[in-house]
Amino acid sequence: MTAVFFMIFLPFVGALYNGFFGMYFRKLSGSIAATVMFGSFISALAAFYINSIAPIPSFTLWSWFPINDSYTADIRLLVDHLSLAMAVMVTGVGFLIHVFSIGYMDHEASPERFFSYLNFFVFCMLMLVFSANLLMMFVFWEGVGLMSYLLIGFWYYKPEAAAAGKKAFIMNRIGDTGFVLAILWLFYHTQTFDITVISQSVQSLDPFVIQGVTLLLFLAVTGKSAQIPLFTWLPDAMEGPTPVSALIHAATMVTAGIYMVTRNHALFNHPAAAFALQVMLVVGALTALVAAAIALGQNDIKKVLAYSTVSQLGFMVMALGVGCYVQAIFHLLTHACFKSLLFLTAGAVIHGMHQEQDMTKMGGLAKKMPLTAACLIAGALALVGFPLTSGYFSKDAILSAVLIKGHTFAWATGLLAAVFTGFYATRVVWLTFFGEWRSPHPPEHVHETPWVMLVPLMILAVFALGAGFIGRPEGSGILYKFLEEAVTQNALAEQLSNAQWLMTIIPGLIGIGLGLFFYSRGQSPQPMVSSILGPIADWFVKKLYIDEIYAFFFVVPTKKIADGCSYLGDQLLLDGFLNSWYPMTSLWGRALRRLHSGYIQASLASFLAGAVALLAYILVRG
Amino acid sequence: MIPVSHVFIIAGFIFTIGMVGIFIRRNLLVVFMGIELMFNAANLAFVGAGRMHPELSVISDGFASVPFVMAVAAAEAAVGLALVVAMYRATGGTDTDLLRSMKG
């Protein structure tokens, strides 16, 4: 219990310190934030170890507020294997990213603001992970969203960053509506917010309620975990500093949706949730494919990685859609390693190139920063699912689970997405590190990444390549055993045949091969791809016009309505009413100002008249 | 023996003279002289009132108020003359009509 407590509240203390006193010791703020994260990570490991000896019970920190006579909402921490696994990942990756940020934010004017937000984000994320009731989970679900908003808009003086923050916040609100409605609906029927109690009483719930609640919860997932149709905020969120993209928009916050579904898997295991699962499978597969396709056309290195994240989240949602929660968590954990690695190496490249993000203006960097290049390649291999890397095991686990459950079409979609993944990953690596120098600046100023940033990258690279063993062998590996108690899921009935198994690993290799084929020979960064695909390639570059479609159908009409309300309510009614009074006021004013001639004698005369009037009044009244 | 009413009548005359002076003269120095006249009229009225009620204690006695009024009048004269000098420096004259910045 103590370990869990320290793990959660050390980042909180760090956030308070940097928020209130950080400005006096700017040079130290990064080190202090990283130190508390290190303490938090050690506490997480300690909690993990203690739990393996004697299970840590769930415990109540304090009573929050009574809802009715029978139920009181508590700030209560649910400690089980699922939350502990997530906590180790969050604090571990979080610690490495904090260390990296010390180097990345060294030119920043107010790093304490950044580190305060980052620490507070980790606190919120841990509270979200350990939430024992849905109400608390929702509060910290919003907490991570708020920190995401603040960090996307960290450079608030840039209009794009401010707009991106707003977009992320508003799109998440749409999803959160679903979450709130689901929570309240559940409370109406179960009279409790407690996740464990709800999970136990699933069987007594009306199937219609289950169906509605699971769909509403999935709406929340599409917002937070960036699925179709609410995914467009995530690529825009790349306006924030790169460590933020790595921590929040790749490794932790966006996976909160996956975690939430897994946490409430009892609801989704109910037969009545079949429709919601179906929707999740379709949405996940489509998201994986569409996002990977858009990633093909992006030139901004962070945008590619952002769409890649959306695509990988699509894979996780696919796994949820077939009821394979552990596989989803498995991919979540490996993805956290390799995608934060990819983002951080991209950040290192951007840092080294002095804030250049356009891949068409890079090239040939492998000679300048060989270690960074090695790390990025390691991350890319894991992302593609190159055999024996961590991504290979986890993506393979998801795809084979989808196939075994009999969803051939979703499986095929996933395979196509995997081909695209291989292609864009190769494209990123090639355009950044190989080929010719294309930047307008001379290559001399580019240098290898400093050690404070490089060491976290190397550690992450080791995990990105090697973390896959926790999910092996399929269905009975360490992770499956570890999560056995916390997550109830049906074991897969059969193993894949060798041919099918081969089918799930080949697409990534095909993608890599295609990427190498196109890019290793073409000198120009936009080689034959666009000439072969023609106008279709343009679609991908334009992100399939999804932002424009949303703007046409939602943003512009909303603005029109707002303008109408502003005209009718504010200008016409309110201003009209108030303005109708002012001629009268001004008339009075003009009449009264005549009294103020400014002559001293006139003022004295009125004073005398007043005195006489007062005297007369007193005399008359007696 | 002069009746007390005569004292009050004289005081009223002097007060009126001072007040009229304040209202009809534009020279600030003369306005001040009017104010001094009004002070002295009030003092005279106090003395008359003191004669009217000799049975009152010292504290509420009309005579006792006279020195206070004199002191206040002296202080007022000092401040007022300083104001006249300040006004002369600021506006170049002592005409009260020069001070019209409070015009609405």
What tags apply to this protein structure?
A: 622 residues, mainly alpha, two-stranded antiparallel sheet, 2 strands, B: mainly alpha, Helix Hairpins, 3 helices
Distance between the termini of chain B: 54 Å
Strand segment tally of chain B: 0
- Could you name the ranges of chain B where pLDDT drops below 50 across 5 or more consecutive residues? none
| Percentage beta strand of chain B | under 5%
- Provide the low-confidence segments of chain A as ranges: none
The total of beta strands of chain A comes to 2
Overall spatial form of chain A: globular
Q: What would CATH call the class of one domain in chain B? A: Mainly Alpha
What structural class results from the helix and strand content of chain B?
mainly alpha
The CATH topology assignment of one domain in chain B is Helix Hairpins
Largest interface comes to: A-B, 14 and 13 residues
> Could you spell the SSE succession of chain B in H and E letters?
HHH
Q: Please indicate the percent range of residues of chain A in DSSP E strands (runs of 2 or more).
A: under 5%
Secondary structural class of chain A:
mainly alpha
The CATH architecture of one domain in chain B can be given as: Orthogonal Bundle
Helix content of chain A: over 70%
Q: Please report the distance between the alpha carbons of the first and last residues of chain A.
A: 84 Å
User: Helicity level of chain B, as a percent range?
Assistant: over 70%
Tally of helical segments of chain A? 26
